[in-house]
Amino acid sequence: MTYLCVPIFVISVAQAKADIARAAEAGADLVELRIDQFTDELQLRQLLGEAVLPCILTCRPEWEGGHSTLDNADRFKILGIRVGDQPRYIDVELAAVDDFKFEDEDESEDKDGEESRHKIIVSSHDFSGRPDRLYSIATELEDSLGDISKIVWTARTVRDNIEVFDLIRSGQKPTIALCMGEAGIISRILAKKFGAFLTFASLGHGKQTAPGQVPIDDLKRMYRWDAINRQTKLFGVVGSPVAHSMSPAIHNAAFDETDFNGVYVPLLVNESYESFKAFMESFLAVEELDLAGLSITIPHKENALRYLTSDSANVEPMAAKIGAVNTIVIGRAGPYATLRGINTDYAAILDSVTAAMGIKREQLADYRVAVIGAGGTGRTAVAALAYYGATVVVYNRTRDRAEALANEFNGKSGKVVAAPMEKLCDSCCQIYIQTTSVGMHPKVDASVFDGKPPKLTSDTVVFDTVYNPLQTKLLQQAQAAGAKTISGLEMFVRQAAAQFRAWTNIEPPLATMRKVVEARLKS
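Below the sequence we write its predicted structure tokens.
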């Protein structure tokens, strides 16, 4: 069993008791009481005696990243306090453990046949990065007097998590191994898959005692903690940055709805192609991860295409034409992985538009479409629309980029031309697709229609691919003019649903996926 532990900084007995109760209600198995700055023995005895969950008692010194200024003798005296069966665990630093001993330790056995003494967690922390002596430290932890080994460091890259999983699997004692920071979040989520002794989850946002701790409500609900086991398949979104992504919420909700044994996590991978390649090769090499599918977002869509084009059969033709892969499907035959790159954005754009208009894709040939922006999403929209014969006008702040994009796809099926952004007001298009970040949170007061908008009627369709906020200023302007509008939510849900289908061969629960994103955006 992998325990779920909530760490709590103890300021007062009342505060700590309330926090312990909240942790219990949220589903924690135990709590870590950080008493770095709480040294009143009488009050501590009261707290331990009334705690409703088993406790880890920790008094972390400043030299190990904590706040205690006490010397080891005084710290150990407090840690050795005993009230009935509490605390069940005591955390002692590896650098100080040789000086640690219990006062008047009772080695008698309790009614369950276990030693009644406290269990000792011997720990090592490195807040600066991966320790040079990582495996030597792990050996020292194994050889120490501790019952449980704990090693924690700040992840340099997401690949550091691979060593975390190796340490958990190879430990002769129950082992806690974690990476701190955004790149280390997956070590906390996947601890149960690899059989760690415990993982830490914060009591809530802003309650973290170490960088990268996930709130317990998110870990239990969004990341499906109770459903994770060794057979759980791993999926994730690869990007930089990635912490803001709503993809974990939407895909994990879909796994829940369909009873699919999977978990979807954020994977922070640095911007370069070399970083993307190193991530892919290191994660694919670990068969026990069961890596089964990836969403690819900024800035790695082109990196994913480059990685996969070593074998052109791995990339669907439309993704190759667009020049970007946003989804990787991973198949496994023992230690061997097969990869397929697809792009679900283009279908999401087409289906969002055609569903709103009540037409088929082939009927787009009868329409004139303005695509605003020549970035990745704009390129995807142009490629998809041109393929179905639409007349496309590309508007972009930089005219050269618009012309290069238009020239690439003009005549492939539909007609594609470029126009300067200042001429957007004179456009006579029937469909407008806004693909830039203008109007995205937090700059919600901006719109590409600011100034002099084009003439809009009840027959005009305005599609803003921005989904945060749900109602951008652009969509508000279009609605005021009587035009039909499409939110970026529609594209986001449709592309995610296509990914889910490709990974699982299960029909995605669209209503659930849409509801999850709407709820998160509204909150």
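The first helix runs from residue 13 to 26.
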